[in-house]
Amino acid sequence: MSDYALKVENLTKKYDGFLLDKVSFYVPKGNIVGLIGENGAGKSTTINTMLEIVQKDSGDIYILDSKKNKIDNDIRERIGVVFDGNNFPEDLTPNKLNNVLKAIYKNWEEKKFFELLEKFSLSKDKKIKKFSRGMKMKLSISVALSHKAELLILDEATSGLDPVVRDDILDILLDFVQDETHSILISSHITSDLEKVADYIVFIHEGKMIFEETKDNLIYDYGIMKCKQKEFDSIDKEDIIRFRKMDYGYEILVKNKKELERKYPNFIMDNIKIEDIMLMYVKGEK
Amino acid sequence: MKGLLLKDFYTTKANILVALLSCLVMAIGLSFVISPSVVIILVAIPLSMTVSGTIISDKKNKWTQYSVTLPVSKKQIISSKYIAYLFWVIVGLIVGTLICLAVLKITNTTDNYMNIFIGFSIIISLLSGSIIMPCNFVLPEEQSIIGTILAYSLTSGILALSIFGLNQIFNVRENMNMTLVICCIISAVIYIISWIVSSQKIKNFN
Asked: Can you tell me the distance from the alpha carbon of A47 to that of B127, in angstroms, rounded to the nearest whole number?
């Protein structure tokens, strides 16, 4: 038995004008991994190629205990997937959807599905097209949690939802990983959501993987150093990950925050949020 | 596979009823002008078309993408559409034939064209299905009309070519039943080839 739920190695996919370039990361069992990046960075492409919705050009993917590059129906039984927006035919009702999925999943748990619908106050007999966006997401999550999935893959599952619904969904995810054999990969550009729940963060920018770090490392190890032009010139270039020239001076993304605080005692060192790191990578200079 | 077919049954049911009712009204009217057998073709083709339409709606509501994550193979996803299509062709033929027989009984008339219309229903349904289904899978939903145009243009072309070819071997007019049987076999073979090729070649479901 491996200690990861998902391992991606050198995943490459080329589209006209876009290259997902040798992306590698893994999702340890019992953890939540957040996949971040701006719109068009390659998060959905990563997920779609991983799930074989589109064919990859090269790279290896291991899901749960699958052999190299082989996702068969047994593995799919153990994965729950939630895409952004609606996932199901809108003319169906949850009741009919239950009949459809009961005939597809060997491990379908009808009782649990209806319990989740009740918990989320979703009508069994209302057509899906009459559901709000939040209700559709809750329905998708109910499905993902009703067939004994061990790995949940969520692609922008919280985008476009109000904070209350987002918080409900995050609670469900945290509840899911209470079982240490359960794991989650969640892509989002709402980094505050991931700050609440993720154990690891994978950052993809323009099709390239920038880093995979534990969330705590990012928050405690990275920082934003602020200084004037003169001071900026005195900084060792290897200490600078990215910098931005602002009206009042410079903002510099740095690693080893504590060490650099000692090295540059006169500089202001601010704590950082994941969003700041993303912004520095996207908008900053190297 | 059973679940996929059930899903298609649920999603086409409402459309089938609407299609059936509108075809019935049109067909019964036309049956007095042309021939009662015209009902068969006017019921069988629209019914089967509702299945190829689900490929487009599945793309719109992301079911196509989602279905790849379910414990069914891509071959099964594609095969379920071909099976559902065949099912509705058969239902259309049966319903159309029953209506035709009812009209003949009510009007106390006979119709010598029934075999021709049954034959043409099978040929046109299978030929157009074998083109329109892979097109709907491969083309973006906004270009689905291209698949429909292509399907009916190619269907006419293949049919004309087949009849022209057969006419070189025997007199088609004098051997209409044999012509229809051969054309039905050609259509069935093309449908099966389309099914096999689509199952093997269509890999991207996004």
From this structure: 37
Q: Domain range holding B127?
A: 2-201
Secondary structure of residue A4 in the 3-state scheme: strand
Total count of domains within chain B: 1
Give domain status of residue B145, yes or no.
yes
Burial B19-51 (b: 16+ CB within 10 A, else e): bbeebbeebbeebeeebbbbbbbbbbbbbbbbb
Complex ipTM more than 0.90, yes or no? no
Greatest Cα pair distance, chain B, in angstroms, is 56
Interchain CB contact of A18 with B (< 8 Å): no
End-to-end Cα spacing for chain A: 42
Quote the tokens at residue B117: 């219309």
Please choose, from the candidates A116, A229, A133, the residue with its C-alpha nearest in 3D space to the C-alpha of residue A176: A116
For B138-166, the pLDDT digits (tens) are 888 777 788 888 888 888 888 888 888 98
Nearest Cα of chain B lies from the Cα of A128 at a distance, in angstroms, of 11
Length of chain B measured in residues: 206
Here the tokens at position B184 are: 């039905």
Stretch A250-273: mean pLDDT, rounded?
87
- Is B206 contained in some domain? no
Tell me the domains of chain A and their CATH numbers: 4-217 (3.40.50.300), 222-283 (no CATH)
What's the pTM?
Answer: 0.84
CB nearest B63 (choices: A55, A74, A88): A88
Rounded to the nearest angstrom, the minimum Cα separation between B8 and chain A is 9
Residue A278 φ then ψ, to 5°: -60, -45
